[in-house]
Write a structure and sequence with these properties.
It contains six helices and four strands, in the order αααββαββαα. By secondary structure, it is mainly alpha-helical. The protein has one domain: Orthogonal Bundle (Cytochrome Bc1 Complex, Chain D, domain 2), CATH 1.10.760. β3 and β4 form a beta hairpin. α3 packs across α6. The radius of gyration is 15 Å and the shape is globular. It starts with a helix and ends with a helix. Bound molecules: heme C. Heme C (HEC) binds next to α4, α5 and α6. Heme C binds next to α4, α5 and α6.
Length: about 140
């Protein structure tokens, strides 16, 4: 049992090497939840995260929008909130060491931003995939 759990968490540990302990714990919670929602879940995936982040959908306001619309496709650069015009700090922790460090903030914005783009909340798997993409994107 322990071995199975370790094999299951290993990709996560590798992917989340740059995350602080608080964020690692959140990723483990998301992985547990993802496994409950989908027994075939094998770990979070950069490629799926990329698709979640870059694909366009009819959002909350009935217009086409993607995560890129506000955060741009270069996550090391500042973004711009298309609704308010406000400048956003870079999402990539490589350019902005404060990004993806506070679980409370990450949860709040993932909830809000999935609604903006997908007009629904994200699943545990989608949230984990998106974080893996954000943290590892060069
Ligand atoms: C309408 C504009 C908008 C869109 C679209 C958007 N975001 Fe955001 N996002 C924001 C704003 C504003 C913040 C808060 C920035 C700040 O104050 O640091 C934010 C913050 C975040 C954070 C927290 C970063 C941190 O500091 O830890 C994450 C994660 C995030 N967004 C992911 C996403 C994902 C994934 C999508 C697509 C599903 C997305 N965003 C789409 C505006 C947007």
């Amino acid at each position: 049992m322990k071995k199975v759990l370790w094999l299951f968490l290993l990709p996560l540990v590798l992917f989340g090497a740059d995350l602080n302990p608080q964020m690692q714990k959140y990723m483990e919670e998301l992985a547990k939840q993802a496994k409950q929602e989908n027994p075939d879940f094998k770990g979070f995936d950069y490629k799926r995260g990329e698709k979640i982040f870059t694909s366009t959908h009819i959002g909350k306001r009935g217009k086409p929008i993607s995560c890129v619309s506000c955060h741009t496709s270069d996550l090391t650069k500042e973004g711009k909130n298309i609704n308010t015009g406000k400048v956003l700090p870079p999402l990539s922790p490589q350019a902005n060491p404060k990004s993806i460090t506070k679980v409370k903030k990450v949860k709040k914005w993932l909830k809000r931003n999935f609604k903006d783009v997908y007009n629904r909340v994200g699943t545990a798997q989608e949230k984990g995939d998106a974080i893996v993409y954000i943290v590892n994107k060069k």
